[in-house]
Design brief:
The protein has about 625 residues and is mainly α. The protein has 36 helices and two strands. It is about 70% helix and about 0% strand.
Length: about 625
């Protein structure tokens, strides 16, 4: 019972006051006349208030009138006063003083009074209040009422606010109503049992015996509520799943009747017969079939029928297909059925409704581990989702593309990711750059392509910083001798282009210092630029030291490069003089690390006996896992 429906009923059902009520009101000096305004009039008065103070004055005046009516035992208008009290409660004002009036209405004999009383009971009270125990006898009497609507009210109240004690005491009456001949009461009782199970899990076995009777009903509402109860039993007591599996043939037969039945106007939703019941049956089959091959085998045929016979032009059909896919992927079925489920999700991806596409992407990401090849067939459609206007769809497609990358398709998918990197919002660039670097590092088989792609990726994200990426690239270059000249020339070209990308700066400076003789000795295949002379290289490093975008870490790399170039450019006296000048300049730096390095390196250059050995190339080292923070930070050290 929603309060909106209740208000609408009051607006349309306003019985006139009896003559005796008017007479008694007049005898009390007209006070009842003030208290007799209807809920609609109170709402109108509240809405007409210009300020918060006016509203409070209006509410306080009405509360005083209601209190007086309660004190005078004005039974004829009690239900109206409680209705107004509920509206006042919705506005946030205290109404606890009216709780007992709800109990008096429930104890009455008229349906109108009971309806308002139960509504007030569920809104104004909760299971923790002791006053609720006073209504237990009324609940028991109403459960035994011959009026189905009064019994339904009692079930509704028990299902919303009953305590464990009330649930335990009234469960026998509710159990009787479950298997009664009245479907209206049966469905209410079934929903009521969900609350009872949550409060008293030990009663699960009691209701288990009634499931078969409920599943035999031809009423869709009873079937729907029974399935809800079955799911709650499985959640409350997982051991019940094994005992409920015996009802699998009944569920399959019910679902088959729904799929193959003709037009049924009382259950039709856009040409689909009772999609709510179909979805609930599929959900229950998923629970029963998970991890049980025998039960799963029974479902293969009906799942195939649902997947092929359900119309996907309307949302109702899409909801059924979605649940069917989830069921197929959760239970033990044939591979062909899994492919059919993935193809359904592939059709969802080309739907114009963004919600359906989002659901498809999200589900594909969950099932990719179960059938990667089937998902790979829809790779182009998934990649197209990266160009969608909806940012949430782009993000889900991005997550799915990451999961699709392997050694066979890494070049194709990384190319698409790079295109997306150039167009994505700034706040996503750093995360996307990190992801691209990770998949390239993990799946690349072409070392030169690896270097080119990392450079291209970093160039598109000027603010990205990652020590892990620096260490990973250094590990790759040191362990691949044939790649060292190529990587050094490529990174030097970026350095010469005045890049301000932190990771590129550090990689370029490190490679120039480590492999300086390769840089000036010749140009490897695949590099178009000419080899620079030593003086140009040292001047470029000097400009890095003066650059405002170079942080302290980058300058530490550059100091290291300077001292290493003293052995690489041993035959270039002009370059050596410039290097000594730079080291002397930074021996008075305000940065303690730069100052210490400059002083120590200047002293090292005077020790000819050990200088060459200390400044040899770094040996190849294995990078650590990315989760471990990168490996071998020998660049700046």
């Amino acid at each position: 019972f929603s309060f909106a429906n209740f208000c609408g009923a009051l607006y349309t059902q306003r019985p006139p006051h009896s003559a005796s009520a008017v007479t008694r009101a007049a005898a009390r000096g007209g006070r009842a006349g003030d208290m007799s305004i209807r809920l609609r009039e109170l709402i109108r008065n509240v809405r007409s208030c210009k300020t918060q103070a006016d509203e409070r004055a209006c509410i306080h005046k009405e509360c005083a009138s209601i209190r007086t009516a309660f004190k005078d035992e004005n039974n004829e208008l009690r239900h109206r006063n409680v209705a107004k009290l509920l509206f006042i409660h919705m506005l946030g004002y205290p109404t606890h003083w009216g709780q007992m009036e709800c109990l008096k209405l429930i104890a009455g004999s008229k349906f109108l009074e009971k309806r308002i009383g139960y509504l007030g009971l569920m809104i104004l009270l909760d299971e923790r209040q002791e006053v609720l125990m006073l209504v237990e006898n009324s609940l028991k009497n109403d459960l035994q009422s011959s009026n189905q609507y009064i019994a339904g009210l009692a079930c509704c109240a028990i299902g919303n606010i009953s305590s464990a004690e009330i649930c335990r005491d009234l469960s026998p009456e509710v159990e009787k109503l479950m298997v009664g001949s009245n479907p209206f009461v049966s469905k209410k009782a079934s929903l009521c049992c969900i609350r009872i199970l949550r409060k008293c899990p030990e009663l699960c076995d009691t209701f288990l015996e009634r499931i078969g009777t409920l599943l035999g009903s031809r009423n869709h509402a009873v079937l729907l509520t029974c399935l809800k109860l079955m799911r709650e039993m499985c959640i409350t007591e997982p051991a019940m799943i094994e005992q409920l599996r015996r009802h699998t043939p009944t569920l399959i037969a019910a679902l088959k009747n729904l799929v193959l039945s003709g037009y049924a106007p009382e259950h039709d939703v856009h040409g689909i017969v009772d999609p709510f019941l179909q979805v609930e049956i599929l959900t229950m089959l998923r629970v029963l079939g998970r991890g049980h091959s025998e039960t799963s085998d029974q479902m293969n045929d009906i799942l195939a029928q649902v997947a092929t016979n359900t119309e996907s032009a309307k949302n109702a059909g899409n909801a059924i297909l979605y649940e069917c896919v989830l069921t197929i992927m959760a239970i033990e079925v044939e591979s062909g059925l899994r492919v059919l489920a993935v193809n359904i999700l592939g059709r969802f991806l080309i739907n114009r409704d963004n919600n359906i596409r989002y659901v498809a992407l999200n589900t594909l990401h969950k099932v990719i581990a179960q059938d990667t090849q089937a998902v790979q067939r829809h790779r182009n459609t998934i990649v197209d989702c990266l160009k969608d206007n909806d940012s949430s769809i782009r993000q889900r497609a991005l997550e799915l593309v990451y999961a699709l990358v392997n050694e066979a398709n890494v070049k194709v998918l990384v190319k698409e990711l790079l295109s997306y990197l150039l167009a994505c919002d700034v706040e996503f660039k750093d995360e996307l750059t990190q992801r691209i670097c990770t998949v390239v590092e993990k799946f690349s088989t072409d070392k030169e392509w690896h270097v080119d792609t990392i450079i291209q990726t970093l160039s598109a994200s000027t603010s990205f910083e990652s020590e892990e990426t620096v260490c990973s690239m250094i590990a790759l270059i040191t362990s691949t001798p044939e790649l060292q000249a190529y990587a050094t020339h490529k990174l030097y070209a970026k350095l010469a282009d005045q890049t301000n990308q932190p990771v590129l700066l550090q990689l370029a400076v490190w490679c120039v210092g480590e492999y300086g003789e390769m840089l000036i000795g010749g140009v490897p295949a695949g590099v178009e630029a000419e080899a620079p002379d030593p003086q140009t290289v040292v001047e470029l490093l000097t400009s890095v030291m003066r650059s405002p975008v170079a942080d302290v870490t980058t300058k530490e790399y550059t100091i290291n490069a300077f001292v290493k170039l003293t052995t690489r450019f041993a035959n270039a006296p002009d370059s050596l003089a410039l290097i000594h000048k730079q080291l002397a300049a930074y021996s008075c730096s305000m940065s303690l690390e730069l100052q210490q390095r400059s002083v120590e390196y200047s002293s090292l250059l005077k020790l000819d006996a050990i200088r060459a050995g200390v400044l040899e190339r770094m040996p190849a080292f294995a990078k650590k896992d990315r989760q471990g923070g990168g490996g071998g930070g020998g660049g700046a050290g």
